[in-house]
Amino acid sequence: MNMNTYVNFSGKCAEAFRYYEKHLGAKVGMVMTHAQSPSPSRVSPEWKDAVLHARISIGDTEVWAADIPNAEPMRSAYLTLRVDSDGEAERVFSALSDGGQVLMPIREEFFASRFGQVRDRFGINWMILHERPTPSQR
Asked: Domain coordinates of the chain in residue numbers?
């Protein structure tokens, strides 16, 4: 059994994936628009170039997505990125907060040397985390 996260965008899925590719090192696996679908789409003609289904790999996790008319931003769910250094945490947080909304500034916490929360310009909530090493890892 596998579990994937599926996120919906309100018309900016392809743009978001290009942004994540550039700033997170993500790899776009596939993108199918409504116009490319082998079966008739139920969306209006102006949505023919919107994403029907797409997949992107961020690290070792695959996220699935689509454009949905009137999609609402994520509310109580976050995609969490665990990074390998404070510098990488700062860089990723800065990229995702550009044009977005900082929900919790990136800072030191008891469980992390860097932790912050942001809603990016596409409406996706992120937690950025550089965990503290546990005593057994030191």
From this structure: 5-67, 79-137
Fold of 79-137: 3.30.720
Q: What is the per-residue pLDDT across 88-137, written as a single tens digit (0 to 9) for each?
A: 999 999 999 999 999 999 999 999 999 999 999 999 999 999 998 776 65
Q: How do residues 56-74 score in pLDDT, each as one tens digit? A: 999 999 999 999 988 887 8
Q: Count CB atoms within 10 A of the CB of residue 93.
A: 23
Say what the pTM is: 0.89
